[in-house]
Amino acid sequence: MNIAYAKPLRNSTEILGLPVDNVGMPEAMDAIKRMLGEDASHIVITADSSGLVIAQNDPEYRQIIREADLVTPDSYGVVWAVKRKGGTVRERVAGVELVDKLSRLSADKGYRIFLLGSAPGVAELAAERLKLLHPGCNIVGTRHGYFPADSDTVVAQEIALTKPDILFVAMGIPRQEKFIKQTQGIIKAKVAIGVGGSLDVYSGKTKRAPVLIQKLRVEWLWRLLLNPKKWAKAKTLPKFALMVLRSR
Ligand code: UDP
Fold this sequence. Notes:
Blueprint: E1 2-3, E2 12-15, E3 18-21, H1 25-36, E4 40-47, H2 49-56, H3 59-67, E5 70-73, H4 76-84, H5 95-109, E6 113-117, H6 122-133, E7 139-143, H7 152-160, E8 166-170, H8 175-187, E9 191-194, H9 198-203, H10 211-215, H11 219-226, H12 231-234, H13 236-246
Parallel strand pairs: 1-4, 4-5, 4-9, 6-7, 6-8, 8-9
Antiparallel strand pairs: 2-3
Helix pairs in contact: 2-3, 2-13, 7-8
This protein binds uridine-5'-diphosphate.
Uridine-5'-diphosphate binds at residues 117-119, 145-146, 170-173, 175, 196-197, 199-200.
């Protein structure tokens, strides 16, 4: 299987020197379905504001985003930045939603899914929940995400044995993307996506905000208030806004 480096012509907008694709959920799903039909492995990045700020000082992560096959706008901050530059993005395409949509696709088409990441036990619970939500969803393996980077190859070899088509990695930015890139040639999943705290959400460990809060587009604020660990990340938001406003 090849690693896909030749990108088709893309409709993307450059934010802080990095491409963000002008996709909503339907276009992102179409692109991913296309990738699943190809005999190659692909990387999808769900870009939020903190990720784009981190990438400014992390050349490896920056390069991974540049070479990714699809970069979706995962946060309202990124949607705002894209619109400000004349891009046509209408909505967020969040990792947590992609997990749901692709699990449903797996139930329909049999695609093999592997869930990697989060604390011990969480990926298993998330798998059970996803199978309840989408009966027939083909989750072929799970593993927690607490292992040192020098074990990446061994972990990748274990995952490769399950022959996943879709690999979700929930280990936080940029660790999850670096794991995906470095092990792409071993695991050979057709699509690999870093999905942050999504497995915590599906396991029930993190509750999604009430629908009203989601509709008001302040779910990030809800999560922030409930989880002090996220406060450091939130500090990057004004920095992101300033950097975008200063950029051309
Ligand atoms: N995590 C992990 N391994 C680590 C560090 C973190 O699997 O070495 C998990 C953590 O348990 C959590 C997720 O990675 O489930 C990070 O979630 P967060 O929402 O902070 O992700 P980000 O916003 O960075 O995408």
